[in-house]
Input
Amino acid sequence: MFASTAYMIGLIPIVLHFTSVSELGLWTLVVQFTTYLGLVDAGVYASCVRRFVGPLARKEISALGTVFKTAFLVSLIQGGVCCFLGLLAHPIGLLLGIGPEKLSIFGFVIFVQFLLVGLFFLNRPFSSLLLAAQRYEVINLVNSVTILLSLAFIWAGLRYGLGLWALPFAYLFQQICSTFATGFMIRRLDLLPPSWWQQKSSWRGAADLLMESLDYFSWSGFSMAGSAVQSVFLSRFLGLEFVAIWNVGSKAASFAYMLFGNLFNTAFMGLSELFEHGEPKRCFSSFLSLFAPSWTCVVIFAGFAIFFNDIFISLWTHKQITFPASCTRVVFTWLIFASLIRALSCFSNIWQIRKAFRVGPFFEFSSLCIFLVVSLISPSLFWFSFALLASQLLPLLFSYGPPFLSFGKILNIRLSKDQWGMIFTCIVFYVAALTIQSVACPPLVAMLILFFSTLPWIYFVLRAFRSRINPCP
Output
């Protein structure tokens, strides 16, 4: 999803240059529904990574043969499911309320996109090996380069009349490059289990993998399902233009959220190893050392972003799209709560708190659906964004928060004074930013107040950093 967000950041100004805001909404839906096929994965990818971590850490690659073959066969079946879902392209267009003049092209492009996703599902077990081995730097580099080249391809496609068909061609190019890069790294690092295709696999092994994957699927599955519900709501009840407006207006918050999530995805392997090696206190302390500065950075970013989001949108879209200030405040408040939940969900996965990472996403998804239904009384972009914010409260209070606090109490580990200082000062800063933005304070005065409001937070960050560099004896 991080790559998808970066891709959309570059895609939007290109599409707006050649088409309209309404057409951008159609492009956005194609990209989003291609991403939603991650639901078919059902958590298998994350489960495979978790299963691969132990043997790879112990250099027992030969022990991976059976589970790797099982993962490959499951991915083969899942790819077939993606291809089958391509047959539902036309009904999906009807569900989204797309007009007849655009329904045909939408259906054909979605069908081809789904076929391509199904084909490249076979690459997932191989890429999970690299993720488990924490060797994905080349893949990230290749993805970054292919995103830029794909955007250039789309620009050329729009320039010479390919229209929406430029998307599947660009996607095909990205996936071919990613597949070759994955194969190159696995061969170079010798991560592939020898003779894995000759290992015995059984339906029972596949069933066990799928049952285990449900624990990991709960987060990603309900997250993608929630995103799909949002897309349907916007397209059907507000129109394609609002799909584009929302996607543009919330992009800075979404991108910050993806960066934050990617940070914890990267740390997940290292923290899991500490837990697996029987060092729970060190694991918990390391988590706190990562969580406090990173989450408070998100809060500080949100405080500044509510002032600069409209300028960013204006420059990005050449003043073709505007986003309401009230929605901006709600969206960046959502970013703060969503990032907090993302960090705590990572903690639950590391510590295998099954109740938390099974029930929490369900709470969030259910809350979202309930608040969206209530917002139908007066459908608008503001109430849509408010429903998104309100959906974060239940999982935070009743699923992710209590286990985190109880484990800290059991291990007798608390946030340090500097970490508490970071959290308190960043919250004060954000409340001040909301207040200043709401009362329309002069820009110069607002910036001076915000600048001086960040100084206490910077002080505690530097103190925490110094204590990590020079710990007390």
About this structure: The CA atoms of residues 291 and 333 lie 18 Å apart.
